[in-house]
Write a structure and sequence with these properties.
Glutaredoxin; 9 helices; 2 domains; Glutathione S-transferase Yfyf (Class Pi), Chain A, domain 2; 230 residues
Length: 230
């Protein structure tokens, strides 16, 4: 049994995408980041950066004590290695998948996250910041579009943890001021992943966590997440 400490954000969705694809048994443990659950000592004990998702694997492959993992990219790699799925074994193919997983973790996610913040949640609209992160988002979508030219998935012919890491961030493309018609390879890839049964199941599980704070109007939630009180 996998305990998944989760909230329905792009990083949270990455893990439910994997778990629904593989059929691993898991239980969602909601971490309401708008109410401060990520700062509780019992959560910090295995997720010291006070971020979700995190997992506890009660049945690790080595048969030993439970294993906890934080950081969404590390969780995807751990689960892929545990199951032998969605991460190639051949060194060259594996390296390509890991490159694009790290690209998402280091560039695509953080830059789109700043786009979301300054465009949607910041108490003051700062034109320079909005323009800077929207432009960087467009550049990164261009990088992804070029990579997908002639490929079904980021790693080639096979769906992988790199695709699972990237897809949830594209879901909010309209809020990022991104028109997918300008990135036809990304658009085709996005539609293909969205049509997967496991993708539908993963996103349906978001409804299980209950009330979600509205970050555009909930000052206390913004303070907890962004350190701002306006």
């Amino acid at each position: 049994m996998i305990e998944l400490y989760y909230w329905p954000t792009p990083n949270g969705h990455k893990i439910t995408l994997f778990l629904e694809e593989t059929g691993l048994s898991y239980q969602i443990k909601p971490v309401n980041i708008g109410r401060g659950d990520q700062f509780k000592p019992e959560f910090l004990a295995f997720s010291p950066n006070n971020k979700m998702p995190a997992i506890i694997d009660r049945a690790p492959a080595d048969g030993g004590a439970a294993v906890s993992v934080f950081e969404s990219g590390a969780i995807l790699q751990y689960l892929a290695e545990k199951t032998g799925q969605f991460l190639p074994q051949a060194p060259r193919e594996r390296t390509e998948v890991m490159e694009w997983l790290f690209w998402q973790m280091a560039s695509f996610g953080p830059m789109l996250g700043q786009n979301h913040h300054f465009s949607r949640y910041a108490p003051e609209k700062i034109p320079y910041a909005i323009e800077r992160y929207v432009n960087e988002s467009r550049r990164l979508y261009g990088v992804l579009d070029k990579r997908l030219d002639g490929r079904t998935f980021v790693g080639g012919d096979n769906y992988s943890i790199a695709d699972m890491a990237i897809y949830p961030w594209v879901v909010s493309h309209e809020a990022q001021s991104i028109d997918l018609d300008q990135f036809p390879n990304v658009k085709a890839w996005f539609q293909a992943i969205g049509d997967r049964d496991a993708t539908r199941r993963a996103y349906a599980r978001a409804e299980e966590v209950g009330d979600k704070p509205d970050l555009t109007s909930d000052a206390e939630a913004r303070k907890l997440l962004f350190g701002v009180s306006k």
